[in-house]
Structure formats: structure tokens, C-alpha cells
Amino acid sequence: MSLQTLIKNVQELGQEEGEGKLRDAIQILEQERKLMEEVPDLQLADKTKRLRQACFKVNYKKRKLMAGMPAMISKSKSAGFSGDNPAARVETNFKQWSI
């Protein structure tokens, strides 16, 4: 996932957050993207890596749900699925990242 895609995902998933936090997070990601263009060997910050991973996980789970896999649904019900909300985890990671 590119930083540009991560910025787009943060915009989509972070709309519930305050406008200021969202703007600050996007600005930080934009700065990091520009630095990566200037210095290609630069490593992403740990917080950015965690945010990227959380966004990827949410998008993956969305794709799985959209695919409508009835076998997965029936298995999760029989296994005692706890109603895990991946978007809530991304929101938590986003809050930690923007501090």
C-alpha cells in the first residue's frame, strides 16, 4: 500500500474524527510521502507502519464481507464470533497515531 493510498484510506476511515486531527494526520503523511520521494531508502515511522497495517486489515475484512462468504459466516457463528469491529481498531490506531 502506497502512502498516497494510506492518505486516501485515512480520509475515508477518519471522517468520524475531528477535522483538525484528520488534517494534521494527513499533513504528516504528506510530509512523509515527500521525504520518501526525496530519499527512497527512508524507512516509514513505526506509527505510520501500524496505521498502514490497521487500514489494510480493515480493507481486507471489508472485502471479505462484501464477497458474501456464507461459509465464513456460519463458521463464525458456531465458533462464538464476538462481533469484532475492525473499524474501531483503526480508529483507536488513528487516535494513537495523531497524538
UniProtKB/TrEMBL annotation:
GO terms for molecular function: DNA-binding transcription factor activity. It comes from Olea europaea subsp. europaea. This is Uncharacterized protein.
